[in-house]
Amino acid sequence: MKKIFIIILFMFNALFAEEIYATFDVVSEKESQLGLSVSGIVSTLNVNVGDKVKKGDLLLSLNNAQEKNEYETARKNAEHSSKIFERYAKISDVIDKEKMENYLYDRDISQLNAQNKEIILRKTELRAPYDLVVTKKNIDLGAIVLASQTNLLDVIALDDVKLVLKFDERYWQKVKVGQTFIYKVDGSDKNYEGIITKIYPIVLKETRQMEAEVKTKDLMPGLFGNGSIKAE
Q1: Which of 23-32, 94-103, 169-178, 203-212 has the lowest mean pLDDT?
Q2: What is the CA radius of gyration of the chain?
Q3: Do the beta carbons of residue 215 and residue 178 sit within 8 Å?
Q4: Which three-class secondary structure string do you get for the chain?
Q5: Confidence class of residue 93 from pLDDT cuts 50, 70 and 90?
Q6: Residue 14 vs residue 79, higher pLDDT
Q7: CA pair distance 127, 203, nearest whole angstrom
Q8: Helices (H) and strands (E) in the chain, counts
Q9: Phi and psi of 47, rounded to 5°?
Q10: What is the value of pTM for the model shown?
């Protein structure tokens, strides 16, 4: 009897659950403007608008002759100092202790310098910080890049998207996290379903609307649509 009562109660609530109309935009969770902190000439440009790139892939690189020369010099000095230390380390029992300490010091300092130069050289490479798609290219192959140019590529994450809902402010007490949102994307007849994960704590002054978020996937950022929030 108790089970029947619960079922009837559930059906009653579902029957009288309020449907709140909401529109939405599909928004990427990650949007970035990528640049470099050094100057140079674009010698490698591996992407174009619309290209999908995996995290860590090389997007572009600069030809900076000075940085390359300094790195090569530092690397050769490190190799030379290391060989000298290894040579005398084999006969350290007959070498003055102070001289051995100097050889060790020279080796360590030259290796550290080479590492620092390599880090600087890597700054001429721009790699994808996450799985992304290129939405805008602000540079071309062979162009001169200044360190002050921080926006070389505009990118977004395709696999990490959400819906930003807009609904009338009068429902501010009825819309809650965890409620179901049934919706359609403009241009498609397919029904989608999601769960509200966040409600923004302000009212938009211009439209007297509130906003909420629904996590989703496999939808292109920039799309829009509408649907109904199932409010109890």
Answers
A1: 94-103
A2: 30
A3: no
A4: CHHHHHHHHHHHHHHCCEEEEEEEEEEECCEEEECCCCCEEEEEECCCCCCEECCCCEEEEEECHHHHHHHHHHHHHHHHHHHHHHHHHCCHHHCCHHHHHHHHHHHHHHHHHHHHHHHHHHCCEEECCCCEEEEEECCCCCCEECCCCCCCEEEECCCCEEEEEEEEHHHCCCCCCCCEEEEEECCCCCCEEEEEEEEEEEEECCCCEEEEEEEECCCCCCCEEEEEEEEC
A5: confident
A6: 79
A7: 39
A8: 3, 14
A9: -130, 160
A10: 0.62
| pLDDT of res. 42 | 92
**Mean pLDDT of all residues in the chain?**
87
Go through the chain and tell me how many residues it has: 232
Report for 9-23, 89-103, 104-118, 192-206: range of highest mean pLDDT: 192-206
The first and second tokens of residue 41, run together, are 């000439």
What is the average per-residue pLDDT within 185-194? 94
Q: SS3 breakdown of the chain: % helix, strand, coil, rounded to 5?
A: 30, 40, 30
Structure tokens at 49: 């608008």
- Give yes or no for a contact between 165 and 23, defined as CB atoms under 8 angstroms apart: yes
